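Whiteboard transcription, Tuesday session. T.W. wrote the structure tokens on the left side:
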């Protein structure tokens, strides 16, 4: 986690760094800091809290330097305060570093450094790096950084300055870092939005690479010393695409963007009633699929299991990436591992992927962020093309992930020599339009949100394909409104959760038509007879459920296996409006960050 930006060029660096940090705030916002090199002096300002606090400091405007680095923090070691904010320095204040990642052996290194007289001022693991660089520094920052990093175990995206050198030295292992190539100026950042306003020409650093950046040149090396030639990528996203475009929050914009996002996921992938994707995989050699992911992406993975087993008949398992990586899983070369990730940078998902690769599995990524680390690690993949997702709560990534899984499952079926029914293809192409219809429930959902905004607990229940949707509805609510919410398979409530039901408990049923409709009606009766308040998601025209439910939200009908994409829309809106009515910062919920690049 944490966001890094650096600049070297001819312009005043402070406004560029502050602006860039604001675009990276989704990576963490516990504290922020900036350090610039001015008249051979490192000048630093740090603040606890969001970037806005740092930007408010009057001294920022007095900085005239054209070289600097900055950081927004998501705390892992040491509480979020000014002392622990980056940049961190060596003993003499000659070296400044900003760091994203975790130094696992920092305790051992700290002891060693303290023995040699270093005074460590913060509680962070990151400060150790500045002291190690100091230990090795002999008029060459690059060499000192290499030697310091040789001793480090763990993950880093790092940018370093020395007061006597007109350059920035950066390096990465496990935490993302890109270089932006401008005209007589260079940038470094954790992610593209930070620099997109200034340049669209980007180089992705790989693990164990280091770059020395000057205003009109750069040199990239492996940490072992060999020079590396890297391609410059032209970024297609516009600055406009990453702005809020009149919506109060990115999350709301991204919810309403879903018809377009899903059109983009589908684009070019249906031709002449067939699915066309270029996935480099011989499916006849695959005996089992394992899907790993975290959070919302894990919910789409669960739907993926149901889809793949139904459509392709291939045995499919789902694992939390964080569990998979440590439980000594049995994996071999007959397995396909699918990793699902919006950011393509989630540390646990990446580690699970590496574990499966080590054991010989084929790997396929379903990822949104183009060029992200996971996309570069997998054998093959499917991009979501959903556009940048900035709101911490994932919305359009979820629906486009489920759509990508449907596309992959149908494509696999074709590769197994079977034909896909024309009706199914037609229904698939209708999904974006059906999402638009579901979004029309917004006003009704605002009223419901107002009614339930003070509830202390919520239950979300669904069955089959919509059990993961219940989990996703509950996750959306808890992460942005801080209301306690649980998702369950509806039939499970009688094994425990039903004890919670009383007249104060709103229970959201995902009850669109399926072969389990009658069973879900029975589950509703169980809740009703204990005075629970039923909010039911139903297909237009459903009369039976209307008789039982206290409130209904109507969504268009589709195939049961496609229904999660439509059914999650009202649940995203409900969570959004409850959080907004509670005056919470929807895009930046407490304790969370968009991209979880530490374990
Ligand atoms: O970028 P990823 O899809 O790998 O991220 C996984 C989770 O961290 C993410 O889905 C998280 O759960 C979101 N806050 C959910 O809204």
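and on the right, the sequence the group agreed on:
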């Amino acid at each position: 986690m944490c966001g890094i930006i650096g600049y070297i060029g001819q312009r005043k660096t402070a406004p560029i760094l502050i602006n860039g940090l604001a675009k990276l705030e989704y990576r963490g916002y516990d504290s922020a800091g900036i350090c610039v090199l001015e008249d051979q002096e490192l000048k630093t300002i740090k603040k606890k809290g969001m970037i806005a606090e740092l930007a408010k400091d009057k001294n920022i405007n007095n900085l005239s330097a054209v070289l600097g680095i900055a950081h927004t923090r998501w705390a892992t070691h040491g509480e979020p305060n000014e002392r622990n904010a980056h940049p961190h320095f060596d003993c003499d204040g000659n070296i400044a570093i900003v760091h994203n990642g975790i130094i696992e052996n920092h305790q051992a290194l700290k002891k060693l450094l303290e023995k040699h007289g270093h005074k460590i001022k913060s509680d962070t693991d990151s400060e150790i790096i500045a002291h190690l660089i100091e230990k090795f520094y002999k008029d060459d920052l690059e060499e000192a950084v290499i030697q310091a990093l040789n001793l480090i175990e763990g993950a880093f995206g790092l940018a370093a300055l020395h007061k006597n050198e007109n350059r920035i030295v950066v390096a990465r292992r496990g935490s993302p870092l890109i270089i932006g190539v401008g005209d007589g100026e260079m940038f470094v950042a954790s992610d593209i939005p930070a620099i997109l306003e200034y340049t669209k020409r980007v180089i992705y650093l790989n693990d164990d690479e280091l770059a020395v950046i000057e205003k009109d040149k750069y040199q990239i090396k492996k940490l072992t010393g060999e020079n590396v030639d890297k391609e410059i990528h032209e970024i297609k996203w516009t600055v406009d695409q990453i702005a809020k475009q009149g919506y109060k929050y990115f999350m709301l914009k991204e919810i309403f963007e879903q018809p377009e996002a899903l059109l983009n996921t589908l684009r070019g992938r249906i031709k002449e009633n067939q699915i066309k994707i270029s996935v480099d995989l011989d499916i006849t050699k695959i005996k089992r699929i394992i899907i790993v992911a975290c959070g919302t992406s894990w919910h789409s993975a669960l739907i993926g299991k149901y889809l793949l087993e139904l459509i392709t008949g291939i045995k499919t398992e789902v694992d939390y990436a964080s569990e998979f990586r440590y439980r000594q899983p049995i994996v071999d070369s007959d397995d396909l591992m699918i990793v699902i990730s919006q950011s393509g940078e989630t540390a646990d998902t990446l580690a699970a992927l590496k574990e499966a690769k080590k054991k010989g599995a084929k790997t396929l990524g379903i990822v949104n962020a183009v060029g992200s680390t996971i996309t570069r690690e997998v054998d093959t993949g499917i991009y979501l093309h959903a556009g940048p997702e900035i709101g911490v709560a994932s919305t359009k990534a979820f629906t486009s992930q489920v759509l990508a899984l449907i596309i992959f499952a149908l494509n696999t079926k074709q590769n197994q020599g079977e034909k896909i029914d024309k009706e199914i293809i037609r229904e698939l192409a209708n999904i974006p339009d059906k999402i638009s219809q579901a979004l029309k429930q917004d006003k009704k959902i605002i009223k419901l949100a107002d009614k339930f905004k003070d509830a202390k607990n919520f239950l979300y229940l669904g069955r089959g394909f919509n059990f993961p949707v219940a989990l996703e509805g509950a996750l959306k609510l808890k992460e942005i409104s801080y209301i306690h919410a649980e998702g369950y398979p509806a039939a499970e409530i009688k094994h425990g959760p039903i004890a919670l039901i009383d007249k104060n408990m709103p229970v959201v049923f995902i009850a669109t038509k399926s072969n389990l409709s009658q069973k879900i009606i029975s589950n509703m009766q169980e809740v009703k007879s204990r005075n629970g308040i039923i909010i039911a998601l139903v297909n237009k025209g459903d009369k039976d459920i209307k008789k039982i439910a206290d409130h209904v939200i109507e969504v268009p009908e589709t195939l049961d296996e496609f229904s999660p994409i439509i059914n999650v829309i009202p649940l995203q809106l409900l969570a959004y409006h409850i959080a907004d009515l509670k005056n919470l910062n929807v895009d930046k919920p407490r304790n969370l960050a968009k991209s979880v690049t530490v374990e």
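Someone added at the bottom: The domain at 440-599 is CATH 3.40.50.10490 (Rossmann fold).
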